[in-house]
Description:
By secondary structure, the protein is an alpha/beta fold. Helix content is 38%, strand content 15%. The protein has one domain: NAD(P)-binding Rossmann-like Domain (Rossmann fold). The chain has a 7-stranded parallel beta sheet with strand order 3-2-1-4-5-6-10, sandwiched between helices. The chain has a 3-stranded mixed beta sheet with strand order 7-9-11. A two-stranded parallel sheet has the order 8-12. The chain is globular and about 60 Å long.
Amino acid sequence: MTTEPKPIVVVTGAYGFLGLHVCRRLAAEGVQIVAFDLDTYAAVNMPEVVGLPQVLFHHADVADPKAWEHMDRRLGMQNLPRPVAVLHLAAETHVDRSLGRVPTTLAADKGDALDRFWRTNAIGTARVARWCAANAVRMVHVSTDEVLGDRWIAGPLINGGGRITGGEIDVADVSSAPYPPGSPYAASKIAAEAAVLAEVRCAGLDAVIVRPTNLYGPGQAPDKLIPVAVRKLCSNELVPLYGDGKQIREWVHVEDVARLLVHLAIDEDARGVSLLPTSSKCGIVHAGSSRRGSNRLVVDTLATRCEERGLRHPGPDRTTFVQDRPGHDFAYGLDSSLTTTECGWKAVRSFLSERDLDELIDAYGGSG
């Protein structure tokens, strides 16, 4: 009696925030994982991913063509089947860093932000798309709501989640034009989407582009808003916020998005989500929660829970306002209703729940 080989999924950026939760879910499904990661400062969850069962490790730069050739050889030498999908999560994501600034302080960053962001986000995505097309492997590309620009400027939310099972690609689906990107990060992610769509049209790539809103949950890089806020609050310090802190963001739990990505990668009934490559179409999926609020509300909500748990001294002073970030978008938000209709997915976690607040405080500030 022969045992069916377990499917293989390549996860780029496997050691990052979203990568950890995706790899955990794939491992629970019995999938073999190729953890493709360069192990940079963003690889904050490497020990946890390394400890998962059925993980092969590929230390490499997604933008390096030789890295993909080496992976081909390795899979061949180990007599492993072709991957069923690549979940492309690898990206430089911090807007401040894309501006060449240190997060929060906006002091000059000594690194070459221009090279890092465009090499990883644009060229790296183009390499992944080319490899997937050449090997007839599905690509699930993780983009961002920021490609659609400042919704305060643009007006209504993008309707329904792009095009999933019908309709031609249009401008509103694939870029923020005529609304300019609010940062070099957003611009590089627009270029990444364009690279995927080029391979769909020219090489028949089977692809799905997923645009999540702001992620929250355990395992996030320490320079992001929520980890910074929890650390400061539990130390009885003020949390720095840009401008007046009234910028609106939509928050979705990382586990909710990981669930959607794994569904798109390995479930047979998700194959209909991607449109026929011969007709130059590509599935575009929005992943939001409709739970929106200002950055200041996020901090105040965390502060209140910290005080309730005795982790912070009660008091009215919780934030300090610093010079605003250049080009700062005021609001993001998506309509993800079509994702629910076509994929059977919706966010189930709630940032305002006591469970989620405690999870964040325990992850970044202490268990009190």
